Amino acid sequence: MVSSSDSKQLVWYITGTSSGMGKRLVPILLSRGDLVIATARSLEGVQDLPTSDSIRLQQLDVTDGAGIIKQKVDEAVSWFGRIDVVVNNAGIGAKCFTEEGGSEQYRRQYNVNVFGALDVTTAVLPHMRAQRSGTVVMVGSRTSWFPEFSTAGLYGSSKAALRVIGETLAVEVAPFNIRVLIVEPGAFRTEKIFSQRLYDGNELADYDKQRAIALEKFSKIDKFLLGDPVKAMHVLADVVRGEGRAKGKPWPLYLPLGKEAEDAIRDKTKLLDNVLEEWGDIIRDTRLDNP
Fold it and tell me: Which DSSP state fits 205?
């Protein structure tokens, strides 16, 4: 499969466009002649997006549940007649120590980043199957490849779940000419990226030293965010549209963006390769003696 859309005008349905990557993506798509349905939890947050006949704004909270989200998607389809690309960009970056937050905080995180994206995707897929074409974009994170720092498990695991869902979905919808793209951004400088406070509802003294280190890191995070989100979204548009730097290239399924994402993926695959090399004989010596 080649990264190509035959340069036709595409209709994009994008969640979470009030900030971050989603906000940058909208004007890029409009400049390329595409049509955009930009969603946000509150329409007040998207009033500064470009205005034209090529864009529609829709209030959408991805945690409202499958029924309401289906109604919203059906409404969106009626505006431009179809949806060619759905971008699951809405999400939150909650932070907590695993023991302190427990399943309650994990459920809160997953309700947005995983189940919200799943509800949006399953609402769009019937329309894509009917037209026998479409692209589903899952916006993950390099944190899912590099969660080995305190408080990262909450957010990182939600993005890892989204990646695995995307991997399976890609196989399931391929017969209908529907593609899946798993975007893995690294450290990009966007507003609200660390707006979620470190969970403090159940502080345990044993974690105080790690807590202080984490808070110090978060306070200085901007100097580590060297990625340009506008450049990243131009790459995303290129890949989906099959033009620019992506023209003629095979469909990637995975789209790491930024050096930090590349490094995290290379380091994790190297770590796993080393485990397989060191422990391979033991790993394989687990078969039935008499199958």
Answer: G
DSSP secondary structure code for residue 173 in this structure: H
Closest-CA residue to 213 (of 97, 94, 116, 52): 97
Does an H or E element contain 55, and which? Answer: strand 55-59
> Over the range 223-233, which residues count as b (16 or more CB within 10 Å of their CB) and which as e?
eebebebeebb
| Torsion from C-alpha of 6, 11, 17, 22, nearest 10 degrees | -10
Pick from 166, 41, 152: nearest CA to 106: 152
Q: What are 71-85's pLDDT values in tens digits?
A: 999 999 999 999 999
Q: Which residue in 31, 19, 1, 24 sits closest to 244, CA to CA? A: 31
Residue spans of alpha helices (H) in 132-186 = 153-173
How would residue 4 be classed by pLDDT, with cut points 50, 70 and 90? Answer: very low
- The residue type at 215: L
Residue for token pair 């209908």: 176
Handedness of CA 218, 222, 226, 228 (dihedral sign): positive
d(CA 81, CA 86): 14
Quickly list DSSP for 33-53.
T-EEEEEES-GGGGTTS--ST
| Active site positions, annotated | 155
CA distance 265 to 248: 24
